[in-house]
Design a protein that fits this description.
The chain is α/β, with parallel strands linked by helices. Helix content is 29%, strand content 28%. An eight-stranded mixed beta sheet has the order 17-16-15-18-19-26-25-24. Strands 4-3-2-5-6 form a five-stranded parallel beta sheet. It has a five-stranded mixed beta sheet with strand order 8-14-13-10-11. The longest helix is centred in the first third of the chain and has 27 residues, at 3-29.
């Protein structure tokens, strides 16, 4: 119970006691008692005195108008001024603004001016440190004109060694601009013009495990450099996925697939039949539920699939449990193969013959070198580069289709070569290519790896990966929120303080650019990159604009944001009234006014 309620109960009890005393006195006095109007006046004055005392102790709240605070942020003019009747403060990111009070953060400014109900933001906007205290306030913010440059950038958090990756984004204010992606050695690995909306997409290839720093360059149509920034990449693989390859006969397609999968980090087991009960490859694997639980992906051709017989049920059960299954053909699609694939939900539309695969044009020699990797003494880099003559690679004439089938790989003409569909917790895919090994022999190993890498990554049993430390780019001296942590987590060896309000989040202010490492209490670690304060200024400004737009919208939706607030009023008028009323009651009780004539005598 509050102090106000206790005081009200005590004063109410005092009034009731006073009334009871008056009534008992009047009854006992009989003819010597007070006249009715005197008794009524005495009884009325008692609650008035109590009310005046209560309001003197707890004065009623009075509405007061909320104030306006003008806040200068990064990019504000040095000659900025506050709006009429408002205070002007400058945050640490703002320049030296004449007449502004310097504050370390917005929370300090709001404590200095507690009547603030409206913020006028000058410059680029509030950083993450100050946005947490702004909700509930009306915000006036007009973003400055956006400079030309990169306003969006998307990259993978992590990639496996030897695989291709995509870097995309959007450019504002530049038409016919050119974007280049350079590998860590400074060589151009891909380049492309931006489209009509300013979007772009570039391809690179990750090499050895570890951290890598690619470079993104933005050039004007005349070749002038506009912006350059690092594209950080964490190259690391999961524990080697376990791959089982079943082939009805040996051949070059199986040979090069095994070689590529081993180089890509798969733990490969190969079983091949050679006819007459002869088996080649690794130790034979029994196809049953127990053995298939040890594998994450099964690749099997049509002849081996037909030879499984009743064991196909165990394979499909393993797929429903999460294992991936990739079926490939060894020749033109006959009735047997069509029936096998139709039973799994894939229809082959088209003929029964063989058709050529339309291949993309060969890359320029300098870019092909970056995709092929650094050469060795045995295999110089130039031997990994294909010539202008494209190899002849064929496929089944039929095209995979179905009700819930998703296209996976297409050739340069848009013809689907592979597709997948879900089956329980796993996925099943089909591949119509017949002699993709020719890509490796003709120097197009990058295209071979891209096709098989995409197919296998789409269906392999997913492995739990490390949780990213945070999402999005971050800059030096800008607050970062790290969540999913437990007490004892460290960054670069320094302990983090967990916020007790959340229980698993910590705030961190990086003091240097480059790579940092977050180590959790369970022993897992995550590496992440921090940009210098002057890197990607257009992207940083665009993110501020988006965050401010969300904050501004939330403030406008709040009920009573700009309404007047209430504060306790002055207590002295109530105490003076209580003193006057108490004196009047004291005098009136002792006076003879209103008494009967006999009592007055």
């Amino acid at each position: 119970m509050s102090a106000q309620a206790i005081t009200a109960l005590l004063l109410g009890a005092a009034v009731l006691v006073g009334w009871a005393r008056l009534i008992l006195w009047q009854r006992a006095a009989g003819d010597l008692g007070a006249r009715p109007w005197r008794l009524a006046a005495l009884m009325l004055l008692q609650p008035i005195v109590a009310l005046l005392l209560f309001f003197g102790l707890f004065p009623p709240a009075l509405p007061v108008a909320g104030g306006t605070l003008t806040v200068a942020t990064q990019g504000s003019s040095r000659f900025a001024s506050a709006v009429k009747g408002a205070y002007l403060v400058a945050l640490p990111e703002a320049p030296d603004v004449a007449g502004a009070q310097a504050v370390p953060d917005l929370a300090t400014a709001l404590r200095r001016y507690p009547d603030t109900r409206r913020l006028v933001i000058l410059g680029q906007g509030l950083v993450a440190r100050d946005r947490d205290v702004a909700p509930g306030l009306a915000i006036d913010y007009t973003p400055p004109p956006s400079p030309s440059g990169i306003i969006a950038l998307a990259r993978p958090d992590r990639v496996a060694p030897g695989t291709a990756f995509m870097v995309g984004g959007q450019v504002a204010g530049l038409s016919k601009a050119q974007v280049e992606l350079l590998d860590p050695a400074g060589r151009i690995t891909d380049a492309a013009p931006v489209d009509a909306d300013g979007r772009f997409s570039l391809t690179g290839t990750a090499r050895a495990a570890g951290t890598a720093e690619f470079t993104l360059r933005l050039r004007r149509a005349d070749g002038g450099l506009v912006e350059q920034a690092v594209v950080p990449l964490l190259v690391e693989g999961d524990a080697a996925p376990r791959l089982l390859i079943l082939a009805g006969a040996p051949g070059p397609e199986v040979k090069y697939l095994r070689r590529w999968a081993t180089d890509a980090g798969y733990a490969v087991t190969l079983n091949m039949g050679a006819g007459g009960g002869v088996a080649l490859g690794d130790a034979p694997v029994a196809i049953n539920a127990a053995s298939l639980r040890r594998y994450d992906l099964l690749i099997v051709d049509d002849r081996a699939w037909a030879g499984l017989g009743g064991a196909r049920g165990a394979v499909l059960d393993a797929v429903r449990g999460g294992m991936g299954l990739l079926l490939r053909g060894s020749g033109p699609a006959d009735g047997t193969l069509r029936g096998q694939w139709r039973a799994l939900g894939f229809d082959l539309s088209g003929g029964n013959g063989i058709a050529p695969i339309a291949l993309p044009a060969s890359l320029a020699a300098d870019r092909a070198r970056t995709r092929a990797g650094i050469g060795s003494t045995d295999i110089p880099a130039d031997l990994n580069i294909g010539d202008d003559v494209l190899p002849e690679v064929t496929r089944m004439d039929g095209l995979p289709a179905g009700r819930d089938v998703v296209p996976l790989v297409q050739d340069s003409a848009g013809t689907p070569l592979a597709a997948w569909r879900a089956l329980g917790a796993g996925r099943v895919a089909v591949w119509t290519g017949l002699d993709s090994f020719g890509l490796v022999l003709s120097g197009r190993g990058d295209l071979y790896g891209d096709w098989w890498g995409r197919m296998m990554a789409a269906v392999v049993r997913p492995a739990p990966g490390p949780v990213p430390a945070f999402t999005g780019p971050a800059w030096v001296q800008e607050r970062i929120s790290l969540c999913g942590l437990k007490p004892g987590a460290r960054i670069d060896g320094a302990p983090l303080s967990i916020d007790p309000a959340t229980g698993d989040c910590a705030a961190w202010w990086p003091d240097r650019a480059g790579w940092h490492q977050l180590r959790r209490t369970d022993g897992s670690a995550a590496a992440f990159y921090i940009y210098p304060a002057n890197a990607l200024p257009t992207l940083r400004a665009a993110q501020l604009y988006q965050a401010m737009a969300l904050l501004q919208g939330a403030g406008q939706k709040g009920d009573g944001v700009t309404a007047a607030r209430s504060v306790p009023g002055p207590s002295w008028p109530w105490f003076i009234g209580w003193l006057i009323a108490s004196a009047l009651l004291w005098w009136f009780e002792r006076s003879r006014i209103g008494r009967t004539a006999l009592a007055a005598a």
